[in-house]
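Re: the 82-residue chain
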Amino acid sequence: MKVEIVTPETSVFEGEATLIQLPGYDGLFEVLNNHAPMITFLGKGKVKIENDKETIHLNLDGGVVEVLSNKVLVLAEKCTRI
């Protein structure tokens, strides 16, 4: 699936992933290929993105995520690589 993470200032990540783990308000949740469509708020916490080559870790300071047609779009207030 395609993952894109953007802040008001910059694009933090854009690429393919097999899994993305995000911080929701009630705890962590994961999105895999062919996930049901959804839009939800994100809390502060760690993001994990896995693909065939690597695992990427980021710090997120809240935002919104949209999952639709194997695309995950994260609109983050602030997001930095660890």
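The chain has one domain: 2-81.
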